[in-house]
Amino acid sequence: MAFCRMERPVDPHQLELLAPARDADIGIEAVNHGADAVYIGGPAFGARAAACNDIADIARLVAHAHRFNARVFATLNTILADDELEPARRQIWQLYEAGVDALIIQDMGLLQLDLPPIQLHASTQCDIRTPEKARFLQDVGLSQLVLARELDLREIAAIRAATDPATTLEFFVHGALCVAYSGQCYISHAHTGRSANRGDCSQACRLPYQVTDMEGRIVAHDKHVLSMKDNNQSRNLEALVDAGIRSFKIEGRYKDMGYVKNITAHYRVLLDEILERRPEFARASSGRTSFSFTPDPNQNFNREFTDYFVEGRKADIGAFDTPKNPGLPIGHVVKVADKWLEVRVDAADLVLNNGDGLCYYTLQKELAGLAINRAEKAGEGLWRVFPKDPIAGFKDLRAGTPVNRNRDMNWTRLLARPSSERRIAVWLRFGETADGFALTLTDEDGHTATVSAPHAKEAAKDAAKSEPMLREQLGKLGGTPFAATGIALELSASWFLPPSFLNALRRDAVSALETARARAYERPPRARPIEPPVVYPEDTLSYLANVANSKARDFYLRHGVRVVAAAYEGHAETGEVSLMITRHCVRYSLSLCPKQAKGVTGVQGTVRAAPLTLVNGSEKLTLRFDCKRCEMHVLGKLKPAVARQTAPLTFYRSRPSAAGDNAATGT
């Protein structure tokens, strides 16, 4: 048995599809459906507190991903208390030993620890919006940067121009949108003690609010004015490529298997179309994927879609009526009886199923849903639906009501079954040796394995059938990660070879090739920080920098910062402060922006960016508008009940010893 290892060239123009994994099984299916990389939470310290996984499961995912040269990134992207640094360090070593390729982090204190040579990526929680910050994070040793979701193409291109081509820029292309700049929202902690920066957001942005002006007049009633539609950059992928994005990230570490399969497949198809037309770019992993279904993002939970700010500010980015899934329009109600309703569907071939979910808007624009217990065809394009709950409980359900479907059981069952195949192309060469025969496999990445076995050379009785039989037996690669692209037979005569011999030779060759691929796999290297340490773009950091431990503070002092304030979770900020900073503007979305009124006769000058108030029950928040930066600040205070709780993070307050003698103490 012989192995020939070929190094895989580093290609700065690789396009990476990065998929989420709530657990290892979902991560494996993400790889099977075309992901070049998967990100998953470890045992602790991830920004999705309820999506943790043990090391053994992550190692299982790693083993599967590496078969296809796909990578696994572990999220350790919360801010940490001093007493959590050592447990975090130990976890990082465990993740490294499990084969994880990179670590996604927010807390700069981790850069001060004794870490393994694992690649580091900057989380979206790092709030990367400027070329200066992106360049700084690159220069301190972060190899991949997750840019803020709010950036437009021009801003992305500016960051690309300011950073090294070897630094990968990553961007969210699909999924739920946080309305705040990531890492810049403290409403959850201020109101409930649950910190978004600690992976435990209470999602105040999805609540309904009454919006009032300075005179107390109602501007909007019970609207979800901080709730965004879901991100969908399907139409902008090539523009993002041209702006410099190389990693295309799908949100969803809380999402189920069907979501990850479908959305990963959808973007795999779109990226492959770009790769087919643009030979200057390459795929970031091995193999090609085929699907037993047609990917469709509309089939999964969504709040309708927006491309957010990528092509500039738009007014329709909000899911103001409901944060729920409104589904797809399918028809309208034609009759309501005491136990059933009849629905006229728009498409004659549309089928309603037992277990489907339907929904409609009430007269108050509230989304109401019903689950189908039984569906019966009542005519051409007409369905009689028996809901699981009594008809009398459905408000405003009447003839003429438009109906959507937000759960299709046929689709759910389709995605519950095996729905993809991912195969690596191999070329087979079968020839003779002195005492038998040899089979060589060469894969699409250039890895080669050869196996040989002794066997008598006995002439085949039917030479015409010998070659087709050989090709059939050698090409049986089902159940392996490989697919035969070509089979070369280098034989001096037609020999009799039993299927058992050929099957054993093929199995050994496949095993040898897998071993060769595993030996050749190299994890991405850790970037070295520039020395002497580069200077941070600012010399003063407020609570917005999320500095929560002594190592993080020391990190910023090393990089020229003179004043470092405690993270908001340290409870040092007890007065009214910005609890959220966002590019979303309620005034703009409600057509109350002074810039919108500019040049409009009779309106210009009458609309001013005065503060607004959000009210939900006893909770009140103030909206202030920074028109120069086109940003909105949501102001509020730490609730007394939360302030009385023990702060989840105790900020390290002692004065630094040497380098920090001229720096102010953290407050």
Instruction: List the uncertain runs.
Output: 1-10, 655-667
State Rg: 29 Å
CATH topology of the largest domain: TIM Barrel
Percent strand: 25-35%
Shape: globular
Describe the main β-sheet briefly: 8 strands, parallel, barrel
**Ends distance:** 65 Å
Q: How many beta strands in the DSSP annotation?
A: 31
Summarize the amount of helix as a percent range. 10-25%
Within CATH, the superfamily of the largest domain carries the name: Aldolase class I
Pfam family, one: Peptidase_U32
Domain Peptidase U32 collagenase: 403-517
Organism: Thiobacillus denitrificans (strain ATCC 25259 / T1)
InterPro entries: Pept_U32_collagenase, Peptidase_U32, RNA/ubiquinone_mod_enzymes
Structure explained in plain terms:
Residues 403-517 form the Peptidase U32 collagenase domain. It holds the Pfam family Peptidase_U32. This is Probable collagenase. It comes from Thiobacillus denitrificans (strain ATCC 25259 / T1). It is a single chain. The chain contains 15 helices and 31 strands. With 667 residues, the protein is of the alpha/beta class. The strands form five sheets. Strands 2-3-4-5-6-7-8-12 form an eight-stranded parallel β-barrel, surrounded by five helices. Strands 1, 14, 22, 23, 24 and 25 form a six-stranded mixed sheet that branches. Strand 16 and strand 17 form a beta hairpin. The longest helix is centred in the last third of the chain and has 22 residues, at 499-520. The chain is globular.
